[in-house]
């Protein structure tokens, strides 16, 4: 059946919205606003029905509670302008499910969500290849060494490679680890024999090279866990699984322990004092504001006050004005344990749902997200809150038919088609 212009608009919005993660932050923010409003305006009549449908779903109610408590915190925050920015994740996590459910009703299929994840993952790896080609050309056309390349372009930012992007490498490694599982899972479906093996090897090698360049400890851990999850969920013999996992672990150990990069060597010798100091400061702030928090927008100010009063603190941390570097701490500092409870319940619900439905893609997403939450305040920048709110809501929204009793409504396209979990293992 030929698609209407509205259907094409919805598909374009759905495919390209995550790609804005690779754009410069002000471009990406404008792209978010554009795609969301294009999608919502395209079918105003269905929005009311979608919203009422979602209001009967438990996880969406917790979404709304989290947003409401965040908005309340602005009343006792002395920096409510910055606090509004902190609401971006909560607000998008409320808007995206409406957009996604309306999309399903308009197109009559939820297969588009799986196509979007593959499109997004392919885009991530195309960007990786562009970076590697650029670095290889620099290496060949100049007198630079591999160490020079690492010093100039490694670890923090890629904005000195291409003008259209400035994504922080920590955030990019989070996207890359999730995209790794999506690509491995997809090639397992569509390829066979040597073509599948070669595709897997190339994907893993490209990922490993990028992670060595980025040099993030948590990204290495996510990489290992993603590969273990992938092998565990494959229909192959136990001996091959054990052998493959052993090879991956051996490769990582030889890379990180025998010949460790500078940051890993520094961590082994002295520990990560920066994050330890951040966590100590965060706990001190939480002790004094554990119930309602300090209010969205005041997190950094309170952390800086605590750091300046501490007996032992790295002046570099004060100068750089680091945030909590832990999303759980960041949320509790902002809106207290009361505000943190809804998002914690959402994580537990998501884990239970992913395990119950054997949704391996959802499991891989949760592994990556929760790992990075422990070492980075992921939701304070547009790369983090867009990735988490959009992809997380995709999994939850298109899993409604399995995790909740569908309301009996004969007029609902959603109910007539009896959605099944598109991510369930074959």
UniProtKB/TrEMBL annotation:
Ranges for domain O-antigen ligase-related come to 203-341
Per UniProt, the keywords (alphabetical) are: Ligase, Membrane, Transmembrane, Transmembrane helix
The primary site where this protein sits is membrane
Does the keyword section mention NADP? no
Q: Membrane-crossing residues?
A: 27-47, 59-78, 84-104, 116-141, 161-182, 194-212, 218-233, 240-258, 328-348, 360-377, 383-401
Q: Name one GO cellular component term.
A: membrane
Q: Name one Pfam family in it.
A: Wzy_C
Q: Does the keyword Lyase apply?
A: no
Q: Where does the protein end up?
A: Membrane
State the annotated membrane topology for this chain.
Answer: Multi-pass membrane protein
Q: Which InterPro entries match?
A: O-antigen_ligase-rel_domated, WaaL-like
* GO MF annotation: an example: ligase activity
Q: What name goes with this protein?
A: O-antigen ligase
């Amino acid at each position: 059946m030929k698609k209407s212009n509205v259907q094409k608009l919805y598909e374009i919005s759905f495919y390209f919205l995550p790609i804005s993660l690779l754009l410069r932050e002000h471009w990406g923010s404008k792209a978010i606003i554009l795609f969301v409003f294009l999608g919502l305006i395209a079918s105003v009549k269905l929005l009311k029905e979608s919203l009422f449908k979602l209001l009967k779903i438990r996880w969406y109610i917790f979404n709304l509670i989290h947003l409401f408590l965040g908005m309340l915190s602005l009343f006792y925050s002395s920096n409510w302008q910055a606090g509004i920015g902190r609401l971006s994740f909560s607000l998008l996590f409320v808007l995206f499910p409406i957009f996604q459910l309306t999309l399903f009703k308009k197109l009559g299929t939820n297969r588009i969500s799986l196509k979007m994840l593959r499109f997004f993952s392919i885009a991530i790896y195309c960007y990786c290849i562009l970076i590697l080609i650029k670095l290889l050309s620099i290496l060949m056309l100049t007198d630079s060494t591999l160490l020079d390349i690492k010093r100039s372009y490694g670890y923090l930012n890629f904005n000195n490679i291409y003008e259209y992007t400035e994504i922080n490498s920590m955030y990019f490694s989070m996207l890359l680890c999730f995209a790794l599982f999506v690509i491995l899972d997809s090639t397992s479906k569509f390829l066979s024999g040597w073509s599948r093996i070669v595709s897997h090897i190339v994907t893993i090698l490209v990922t490993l090279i990028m992670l060595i360049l980025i040099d993030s400890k948590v990204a290495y851990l996510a990489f290992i866990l993603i590969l273990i999850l992938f092998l565990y969920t494959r229909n192959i013999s136990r001996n091959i699984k054990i052998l493959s996992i052993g090879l991956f672990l051996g490769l990582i150990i030889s890379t990180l322990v025998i010949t460790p990069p500078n940051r890993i060597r520094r961590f082994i010798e002295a520990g990560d004092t920066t994050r330890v100091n951040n966590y100590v400061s965060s706990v001190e702030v939480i002790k004094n504001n554990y119930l309602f928090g300090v209010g969205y927008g005041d997190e950094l100010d309170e952390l800086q006050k605590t750091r300046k009063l501490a007996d032992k603190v790295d002046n570099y941390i004060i100068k750089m004005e680091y945030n909590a570097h832990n999303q759980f701490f960041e949320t509790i500092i902002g809106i207290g344990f009361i505000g943190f409870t809804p998002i914690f319940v959402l994580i537990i619900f998501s884990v239970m749902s992913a395990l119950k439905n054997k949704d391996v893609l959802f499991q891989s997403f949760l592994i990556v997200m929760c790992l990075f939450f422990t070492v980075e305040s992921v939701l304070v920048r547009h790369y983090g809150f867009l990735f988490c709110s959009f992809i997380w809501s995709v999994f939850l929204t298109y899993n409604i038919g399995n995790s909740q009793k569908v309301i009996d409504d004969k007029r609902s396209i959603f109910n007539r088609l009896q959605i099944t979990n598109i991510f369930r293992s074959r």
